[in-house]
Amino acid sequence: MNTGVFGVVFGNRDFFPDHLVGTARKEVKAVLDELGLGYVMLAESDTKLGGVETFADAQQCANLFKAHREEIMGILVILPNFGDERGMAETIRLSGLDVPVLVQAYPDDLDKLDVARRRDAWCGKISVCNNLYQYGIKYSLTDQHVIRPDNAGFEREVSDFAAVCRVVRGMKGMRIGAIGARPGGFNTVRYSEKILQRNGITVVTADLSEILGRANRIKDDDTIVKQRIEAITNYAKRGLTPDESLVQMAKLDFVLQEFVEEHALDATALQCWTSLQQNFGCNVCTSMSMMSENMLPSACEVDVTGTLTMYAMQLASGSPSALVDWNNNYADDPNKTVLFHCGNWAKAFLPDIEISNAPILGSSLGVENTWGALDGRTPASPLTYGRISTDDMQGKIKVYIGEGELTDDELNTFGNRAVARIPDLQGLMQYVCRNGFEHHVVMNASRTAKILEEALGNYFDWEVYNHDKG
C-alpha cells in the first residue's frame, strides 16, 4: 500500500559535477513511479538542472512545496553529490512543512574519484544532517549510509518511509470515539485524555445510554434494520443466531455507524460489557469487527489507547489490526502464547468467521444475551504486536513493539483465538509487567515494527521499546 505524494529536493554544490543531478532525477522518478508514489520537484529549467544550491534555489523549492502542502506527506532529500548543506535545511524550514524527511546519499565508485566524477556525498550527508539537527528538523536515515536509487534496497527504504509518513500524518489530528464508561473492574484500561490531546489526538465521549436510546427508538421492521441485517449476514455466517438478536445487532450497528460519521471518527472504543448485555440483550462484537475490517478500528472495554495502537499499526501496514489479550501459556513452550478475545477481531484474521455467543459472559449474564460475538481461529501469518499507553505518573506516552509469527499449532477453545511464537517471550512479559502495561496488546499480520518505531519514536518523541532489539 503506497499512496501519497513526496516533496523531492536534490542537493547540488558548485564545485561538484552538475550532471549527477540530472541523472539522479531520472533514477529517483523511476523508483517513485514503480512504487505508485507521486512527487513534487523543481523542473530542470527552474534552477540549475532542478537542484538546490543557493538560497534563491531554496526559496523557489520551498514555495513549490508550500503550494502543495496539503498533498505532501514527506520529503526526500537526495544527494547526488556533496550538496549544499544550508540549502537543504533552508528549503524545509522555508516550506513550513512539518512532515517526515528521508535523507539519501549516493555512493562513489572507486574508479571515478577524479575531480570530474567524484561525489563526496558520504561526507555531504553528515553535513546535511548536522544542519537539519541545528534547525530542529526531524529526519530519517537509510539503513546504508550511502545507497543508489537503482539498488533494490532503496525501493524498500522508500516504501517503508512512505509507511512512516502515513503513520505520522494519520495520527496527527486523530479522533477516537469513547462510547460508554470503562467496565468497573478494568482499571487496566485507564488512560490520560489530556496527554493524548497534547499529542494531537482527540477523544469524543458519549454515554452508552445515548447509543442504546437511539437504537431502541428504531422499529424492528424499519428498512434500515433489514439493510443492516443483510450487511451483517453477508459479512459473517449467522450460525444459530436468533432473529431477535440479529434485529438488536442491526439497530446497534446502524446507530454506531451514524455516530462515527457524525463525529468524523477514525476509531472507536466501546463499553462492550456488561451493560450492553443486561440492557440491550446482545454483544456488539460483530459490528466492531466490521468497523475494524473497514479500517475504522474498534476496541472493546473502552480501551482508547488500545484502539489508538490498532490505528497506528493499520496505517503502517495498510491492513486491519486486532485487540487481543495476552491470555494463556501454550503448554510448556516458553516462546509461545495464546491470544484471545470474546469475538471482535476483523474478518482478515478469521477466514471461517461465524456469529456466535460469548460463553464466559453468558455464564453470568445469560447466553441468550450474548449473541453477536464471533467465533474463529486465526491461521499462520507474520505478526507485529505492540501497545501504546499513556503513563500519567511520568506524563508521557510509552510504547512497546516487536515481531513474531502466528502459528497453526493446535488450539481447542472458543471465541477469537490464535497462537503466537515470539522470540524471548518471557523477557517481553517481564518488560510488560515491570513497566505497568495493559493486559491488552494489538496484533497485525505484517512486519512493521521498524516503521512504527521510527514514526512513534522519532517523529512523536514517544518512548519506544523494540523487543526485537532487546
Annotate the secondary structure layout.
Blueprint: E1 5-10, H1 19-35, E2 38-40, H2 55-67, E3 72-79, H3 85-95, E4 101-105, H4 121-134, E5 140-141, H5 152-171, E6 175-179, H6 193-198, E7 202-206, H7 208-216, H8 223-235, H9 243-262, E8 267-270, H10 275-279, H11 285-293, E9 298-299, H12 304-317, E10 321-330, E11 333-341, E12 354-356, H13 359-365, E13 373-377, E14 381-391, E15 396-407, E16 416-421, H14 425-434, E17 440-444, H15 449-459, E18 463-466
Parallel strand pairs: 1-2, 1-3, 3-4, 4-5, 6-7, 6-8, 8-9, 13-16, 15-18
Antiparallel strand pairs: 10-11, 10-17, 11-16, 12-13, 14-15, 14-17, 15-16
Helix pairs in contact: 2-3, 3-4, 5-12, 5-15, 7-9, 8-9
Pfam family, one: Fucose_iso_C
Domain L-fucose isomerase C-terminal: 339-465
GO cellular component, one term: cytoplasm
Query: What structural class do the secondary elements suggest?
Result: alpha/beta
Average pLDDT for all residues? 95
Distance between the termini: 29 Å
Looking at the overall shape, the CATH architecture of the largest domain is Alpha-Beta Barrel
- Note the main sheet: 6 strands, antiparallel, barrel
Identify the strand order in the major beta sheet.
10-11-16-15-14-17
Q: Which geometry do the CA atoms define? A: elongated
Question: What's the CATH topology label of the largest domain?
Answer: L-fucose Isomerase, Chain A, domain 3
Proportion of β residues?
A: 15-25%
* Total number of strands: 18
Task: Kindly provide the radius of gyration, computed on alpha-carbon positions and rounded to a whole number of angstroms.
Answer: 25 Å
Low-confidence stretches: none
| Helix percent band | 25-40%
CATH class of the largest domain: Alpha Beta
